[in-house]
């Protein structure tokens, strides 16, 4: 049977090139970058070379890149840094939006408990925020705007450059969680007027446990982890040398093939969207165009997302119903609720996130298998029976 991994928004497979780049730093070149002798210096050179290459991929300067353990750490550090700067200036107002990753939302919750006020941009049915709304909401005491570049569940791409322009004009720090975007869609921290940006290697075929935070020159990063002087004193702990080297290689490769992969994936994505739209009482979640090339997210009325995932797993498909972080809990996705899907419908969601090696044949298999799954699950769903009998109103 065919096996299709369609959960690349949760994590991606390490690329063979990244693994090859990492191997020497897991074997013979094992020195500590802080050591002064040759072995250490070679490791340090590898880290600094990776910093330069990562910086180039997002149009930053090497000194603006801090290596972290991943996207969650970068999000925490970016937000807590902006909060520390705000606190010193007596500014305790933050603007975000309701579809952020929990690494952002939970950090903001913690700041609210410390006396910060957090307001959320209005969310629209297509999952995209508006720069005009942001302009209206910024106050004299706003110290941070944090809006993700691309959503991990519904794949919507936010108008980052317009948001950045509003923040720049109003003198407010702008952070973006770009974990789903880096290596997948074009990003330029200069042109997009971004002050802080989070990224994670395992979302672009690099290793897990490695990421980076871009911090514009002039912003003093607040350390989360204290200790040694690594990362210019902003992130203590012996560097994950192999991880950092693997991330740089994976990112360079992703950026080099971004246009080609983007075109190919967009065509496959739209093929999937057309095919799945044929399922009655279904709906695409998120904007059809302002969307990651790899992301397809649907709601199907009258079924449970969990049962759908189990059926798909049995039939060779690895997919997700939302974010990997909330699956395992029975709460419907906060993202789907924020774009206005009612609880019942939000429970019946499916996210397919394609890898760059996906084929048309696989897309067609996905369409057929999801169609069969939905039919099968509906055949013994009490909710579906009530809908069919007219005892309940269809929402989709
Ligand atoms: C995966 C993800 C994160 C978390 O990154 P980790 O490296 O797994 O900590 C944060 N934000 C978004 C949008 C993500 O998709």
Element order: H for helix, E for strand = EHHEHEHEHEHEEEHHEEHEHHEHH
Q: How many domains, in number, for the residues?
A: 2
What does the radius of gyration come to?
22 Å
Q: Which secondary-structure class do the elements indicate?
A: alpha/beta
Short structural description:
This protein is an alpha/beta fold and 396 residues long. It has 13 helices and twelve strands. The chain starts with a strand and ends in an 8-residue tail after the last helix.
Describe what you observe in this structure.
The protein has helices spanning 16-26, 38-57, 71-88, 102-113, 131-137, 160-170, 241-256, 258-277, 305-314, 334-338, 343-347, 360-379, 382-388; strands at residues 4-5, 65-68, 93-96, 117-120, 142-146, 173-177, 196-200, 211-215, 282-284, 295-300, 317-318, 349-353. With 396 residues, it is an alpha/beta fold. It has two domains: 16-256, Aspartate Aminotransferase, domain 2 (3-Layer(aba) Sandwich), CATH 3.40.640.10; 257-388, Aspartate Aminotransferase, domain 1 (Alpha-Beta Complex), CATH 3.90.1150. A seven-stranded mixed beta sheet has the order 2-8-7-6-5-3-4, sandwiched between helices. Strands 9-10-12 form a three-stranded antiparallel beta sheet. The longest helix is centred in the first third of the chain and has 20 residues, at 38-57. The chain is globular. The two termini are 33 Å apart. The mean pLDDT is 96. Pyridoxal-5'-phosphate is lined by residues 70-72, 75, 101, 103, 148, 152, 177, 179-180, 200, 202-203, 211.
């Amino acid at each position: 049977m065919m096996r299709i991994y369609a959960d690349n928004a949760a994590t991606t497979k390490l690329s063979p090139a990244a693994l090859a780049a990492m191997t020497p730093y897991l074997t013979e070149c094992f020195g500590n970058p802080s050591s002064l002798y040759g072995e250490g210096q070679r490791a340090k050179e590898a880290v600094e070379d990776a910093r330069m290459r990562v910086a180039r991929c997002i149009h930053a300067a090497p000194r603006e890149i801090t290596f972290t353990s991943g996207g969650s750490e970068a999000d925490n550090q970016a937000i807590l840094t902006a909060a520390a700067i705000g606190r010193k200036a007596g500014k305790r107002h933050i603007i975000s939006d309701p579809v952020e990753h929990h690494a952002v939302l939970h950090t903001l919750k913690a700041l609210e408990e410390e006396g910060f006020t957090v307001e959320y941009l209005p969310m629209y049915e297509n999952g995209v925020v508006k720069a005009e709304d942001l302009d209206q909401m910024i106050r004299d005491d706003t110290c941070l705007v944090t809006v993700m570049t691309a959503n991990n569940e519904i794949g919507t791409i936010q108008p980052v450059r317009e948001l950045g322009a509003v923040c720049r004009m109003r003198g407010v720090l702008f952070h973006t969680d770009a974990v789903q975007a880096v290596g997948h869609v074009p990003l330029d921290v200069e042109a997009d007027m971004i002050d802080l940006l989070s990224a994670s290697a395992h979302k672009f075929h690099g290793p897990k446990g490695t990421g980076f935070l871009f911090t514009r020159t002039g912003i003093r990063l607040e350390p989360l982890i204290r200790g040694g002087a690594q990362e210019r004193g902003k992130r203590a702990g012996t560097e994950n040398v192999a991880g950092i080297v693997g991330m740089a290689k994976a990112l360079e490769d992703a950026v080099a093939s971004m246009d080609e992969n983007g075109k190919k994936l967009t065509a496959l994505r739209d093929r999937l969207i057309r095919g799945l739209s044929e399922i009655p009482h279904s709906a695409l979640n998120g904007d059809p165009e302002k969307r990651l090339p790899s992301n397809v997210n649907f709601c199907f009325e009258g079924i449970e997302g969990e049962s759908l995932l189990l059926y798909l797993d049995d039939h060779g498909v690895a997919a997700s119903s939302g974010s990997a972080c909330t699956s395992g809990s029975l709460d419907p996705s906060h993202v789907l609720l924020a774009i206005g899907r009612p609880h019942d419908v939000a429970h019946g969601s499916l996210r397919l996130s394609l890898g760059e090696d996906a084929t048309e044949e696989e897309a067609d298999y996905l369409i057929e298998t999801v169609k069969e799954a939905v039919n099968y699950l509906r055949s013994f769903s009490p909710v579906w029976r009530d809908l069919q009998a007219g005892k309940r109103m269809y929402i989709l």
